[in-house]
Amino acid sequence: MDFSTYANNYGLANPGEAQAPPQIQLQQTRPRFLLVPLNSDTMNFVVNLESNARLRYSHPLDPATNRPLVALDITFSNPEKSAYTLGCGDSVDIFLPDEVPSHRSTSRISSLHAVFSFVEATGAVLLEDHSRSRTVELLDCDGCTRIDFKPNSIPRSVLVARSINTRIAFGRDRRYIFEIRWWSDGLNDDDFPKNRNNTYTVGPNDASHPPLYVEGRRMGSGAYGSVWMALDVFTGEVMAVKKYDNLTGKHRDFARREVRNLQRIKERNHVSRSSCLLFPFVYANLLRTATLESYSSDPWSCDEPKRRLG
Q: Which of 91, 92, 89, 48 minimizes the C-alpha distance to 72?
């Protein structure tokens, strides 16, 4: 159950008000979530820290634990606020101490350790790892999908959303652990509908390959496949995904020819770049000015194939 459902069922109020979180409409509701501490160090040395008091949220009852709820309230309702920084530096939004009295060793927290950034074009929120020690970790939890940072990527960033990367650790030995509970994750429900479990569908549907995108609405179809809107889980950008329905016989020959043609195409007005070819999917980044409907009939470039047909 996400936190907005908690709020409706149990009457939890927003800080300083008694109604649901305010919605500033762009293409979607701007995101808002709570960072709930899951261990004593996080509660004692982060959430209860005076320098983080301006973000503190409390309520007498947390329905998940039947104990008082104390957390940090992260909201992007202010259009001028597009990022929240975490670390042990003087100017961060959320201070994470590098040294705490209960531990002899440091936490390996960098001055700028991590950032929650808002992608205004899509409403996505990304977690960025800026730590020198690479000690920002996505953790497994029941009912959520864990998507790791892309190896060797700069910057190291990955999507956080309802049911995706909802548990995060910062520092050496997972010193500070938070759970994300969402008021709104910012993604448009019409473009990125949830499934019957109220979670997002991630793709590709291939156990041998890690998730690459959040599947959105279907844009069009043809004799050999269909085109879907998608969200890149590493950049928060809108993508187009082509799914081949049949890869046997003449269908496979057609797909091979199409893939080769796509690899030859270097410049199209509605394509900024292409990052991957994934059998049996092809997906490509879109410019902000692109119309996704054009992908129902037009090809796009694919300059860096990762897996080939045949």
A: 48
